[in-house]
Amino acid sequence: MSADLYIAFVISSFLLAAVPGPDNMFVLAQSALFGAKAGLLVVCGLCLGLLVQTVCAALGLAALVAALPPLFWTIKIAGALYLLYLAYLAVRHARDLSDKPQVSALTKGSLVRRGFIMNITNPKVQIFFLAFFPQFVLPGTVGGQLAFYMIVLGLTFMVATLLVFAAVALAAGYLSARLQGQSFTTVLNYISALLFTVLALLTLAT
């Protein structure tokens, strides 16, 4: 892999991470609901998911998923159902606010798990890796060398995602903290539920 190709990949990774999509919209919603620290934990979960996706791409498992439509759709449906479950939780939290002054806090593990499940149940990430990464590898690269380059590119993409998504989490958490109030939190829960539902539908439709 040449230095020019790698620099181009780094720039492309930051730009792609900044483009609004399901993952950063998910981070935005969670950070607005539970604060910047919670958002950062979700980002950590997403990045752990990217690490798994990177290993899958390097070992050829991503290509296997792409070649088996039933497996591909099973993962997609699982991801959509999980998003609908989060939408249900957001609605339930909104309704509970009539009796509770604040949304129940989530554990650190549950926040990381949310981000991780959100990523690994999105098979489109695997397809994206297969389509995007090879463009930055010299033609003729095969075998262990190709796997090594895929891991390097995956880790680079993960770092770019971590930095961009962390900025999103901090900004959303800061703005949310400035707008504290029961009415605001209730509305925010319903908006988050709508967002999760839309993401679930988009997961199935695309």
Topology, number of strands: 0
Between the first and last Cα atoms, what is the distance in angstroms? 32 Å
Q: Indicate the overall shape.
A: globular
From the structure provided, what is the oligomeric state, counting identical versus distinct chains? single chain
Secondary structure class reads mainly alpha
Number of helices: 9
Beta-strand fraction estimate: under 5%
For the sheet with most strands, the description reads:
none
Fraction of helical residues: over 70%
Low-confidence stretches: none
The succession of helices and strands, N to C, reads HHHHHHHHH
Number of domains: 1
Average pLDDT taken over every residue: 83
Record the SSE blueprint:
Elements: H1 3-18, H2 22-34, H3 36-59, H4 61-67, H5 69-96, H6 108-120, H7 123-132, H8 143-178, H9 182-205
Helix pairs in contact: 1-8, 2-3, 2-8, 2-9, 3-6, 3-7, 3-8, 4-7, 5-6, 5-9
